[in-house]
Amino acid sequence: MEQRSSQPYKHYFWKRFFLFFIPLMVVGIRFEPMIIQNPFEELEDYGAFVLFLGIYILVLGAWSAFLTSMMWRIRQFKLKQ
């Protein structure tokens, strides 16, 4: 039973994950001055850019995964009723 229910979840998750992740990433980066207004004059500027970009990818990926999982749970709850 577990194997049958996990396959649709994986399909649902990866199909909808990027629908949340890409818009969140675009909006998040657009308003972050450390990423947009970085002068790239020294090596530390490149490091700061990579650090902030990595943090944004990690945090926004977690938010996207959370939203996708909550949508799955709501969908399963509605199907059981």
Question: What would your notes on this structure say?
Answer:
The radius of gyration is 18 Å and the shape is elongated. It is mainly alpha-helical and 81 residues long. The longest helix has 38 residues. It contains three helices and no strands. It starts with a helix and ends with a helix. 88% of the residues lie in helices and 0% in strands. Helix 1 crosses helix 3. The mean pLDDT is 89.
List the helices and strands and how they pair.
Blueprint: H1 2-30, H2 33-36, H3 43-80
List key phrases describing it.
about 80 residues, mainly alpha, 3 helices
Considering DSSP H and I runs of 4 or more, what fraction of the residues is helical?
over 70%
What structural category arises from helix and sheet content?
Answer: mainly alpha
Q: Which spans have pLDDT < 50 for at least 5 consecutive residues?
A: none
Our Rg estimate from Cα atoms comes to: 18 Å
Number of helices: 3
Could you tell me the strand content as a percent range? under 5%
Largest β-sheet summary: none
Number of strands: 0
Shape: elongated
Topology as a string of helices (H) and strands (E): HHH
Average residue-wise pLDDT: 89
Distance between the termini: 19 Å
Task: Summarize the structure in short.
Helices cover 88% and strands 0% of the residues.
